[in-house]
Amino acid sequence: MAARNKYSEQSTTSAKEYLPLSLAVRRVTGTSPHLSTLLRWCAVGVRGRTLGHVVIGGRKMTTIEDVQAFIQVNAAKTTSHHFDLAVSKDRTRAIEKAVADLRKIVGN
Q: Is 31 among the domain residues?
């Protein structure tokens, strides 16, 4: 017989059904990130987006909908995100000087 916990019988259809962070993320993604990762998602966020949550009885709780929205926004930013690799002229000159100095030392 499968082990049951106090959350196993709850439905995920309610918009305001708050679950512990780890359980909500596991139900959406099928994975269990470390608790410190989940807490960082709530406090700091990823790419400017934090995971919506409430504190109930000293525990951070979230909804399935909040987790889905968080993952969708970050997945969209990941696929459409391109890095601006512009380097300042001062930095470019410093790199070129370092390369020239290294070539003198190595003998190329």
A: yes
Would you say residue 36 lies in a domain? yes
User: Is position 23 within any domain?
Assistant: yes
Residue type at 98? A
Cβ contact 50:43 at 8 Å: yes
Residue 14: name the closest of 66, 64, 81 by CA.
Answer: 64
60 Cα distance to chain centroid? 16
Q: pTM above 0.90?
A: no
When pLDDT is cut at 50, 70 and 90, the band that residue 2 belongs to is low
- What per-residue confidence (pLDDT) applies to 15? 52
Residue type, 42: C
102 to 87, 95, 97, 107: CA distances (angstroms) = 21, 10, 9, 8
Domain of 62 in residue numbering reads as: 19-83
Give strand pairing partners of 60.
55
